[in-house]
Amino acid sequence: MGIEVFWYKKNKKTINFLHSDTIDELSLQVENCTKCSLHNGRTQTVFGDGLLQSNILIIGEAPGRDEDKQGKPFVGRAGKLLTEILKSINIQRSDVYITNTVKCRPPDNRNPSKEEVDACSNYLESQIEIIKPHLIILLGKVAADRLLNLDLPMSELRQKTYYYKANKIPVVVFYHPAYLLRSPSEKSKVWDDLNYMKNVFTKNVG
Ligand code: SF4
């Protein structure tokens, strides 16, 4: 039973002090970043939050109003739902790392443009390089479109395994929790996605 509960902690890595310093430096660069116009409207940047040693990296679309206020990703209603979804398969939120494709809130919560995601991509790539997750979960169509260059409906994106660039890190796509709040009838499909993700993880990590 114990092994089942902690399946996602298998082959967990250690992050050395160098990496810890690197992530702090990166966070400082993001705080001062003006590479795209999204910096104009931000209250503060939303770099990322969670366990640097995590095997699972979750990437959402962009900070919303609550995130912009608090400086942390997924702290509003969608964040609470994400925490519940993770809990349903015994994953504590504190055991994963969560970030977004862009680190500043787009005006009126619009989708970040391809150009904005590209401008911010070095930060995300560095986060992935430091964390070296065994699995990446993309939340929603926009994150999948921008990071995988796949303009497909969610029905075609779910339950498939993609690979992140040359790192060969498996990537799966889940519904964005904000969408699930708007479309509660879709919530029942989340369980299938979680099981799919767990199988991909087990196949990859052993
Ligand atoms: S979204 Fe990213 S690239 Fe644009 S200003 Fe913010 S940190 Fe810089």
Task: Give a brief description.
With 206 residues, the protein is of the alpha/beta class. It has nine helices and six strands.
Task: Note the main attributes of this structure.
alpha/beta, 6-stranded mixed beta sheet, Uracil-DNA Glycosylase, subunit E, 206 residues, 6 strands, 9 helices, 43% helix, binds iron/sulfur cluster
Query: Which structural class is indicated by helix and strand composition?
Result: alpha/beta
What small molecules does this complex bind?
iron/sulfur cluster
Task: Kindly report how far apart the N and C termini lie.
Answer: 17 Å
**Biggest pleated-sheet summary:** 6 strands, mixed
Give the CATH superfamily.
Uracil-DNA glycosylase-like domain
- Write down the oligomeric state: single chain
CATH architecture: 3-Layer(aba) Sandwich
Taking all Cα atoms into account, the compactness measure Rg is: 16 Å
- Coarse shape: globular
Biggest sheet strand order reads 1-3-2-4-6-5
Write structural notes for this entry.
The chain is an alpha/beta fold and 206 residues long. It has helices spanning 2-5, 17-31, 65-70, 77-87, 114-131, 141-148, 154-157, 177-182, 190-205, and strands spanning 49-50, 56-60, 97-100, 135-139, 162-164, 169-174. The mean pLDDT is 91. The chain has 9 helices and 6 strands; from the N terminus they run ααββααβαβααββαα. The protein has one domain (12-205): Uracil-DNA Glycosylase, subunit E (3-Layer(aba) Sandwich), CATH 3.40.470.10. It is 43% helix and 12% strand. A hairpin with a 4-residue loop joins strand 5 and strand 6. The chain has a 6-stranded mixed sheet, with helices on both faces. The structure holds iron/sulfur cluster (SF4). Iron/sulfur cluster (SF4) binds at residues 30, 33-36, 38-39, 45, 102-104, 116, 119-120.
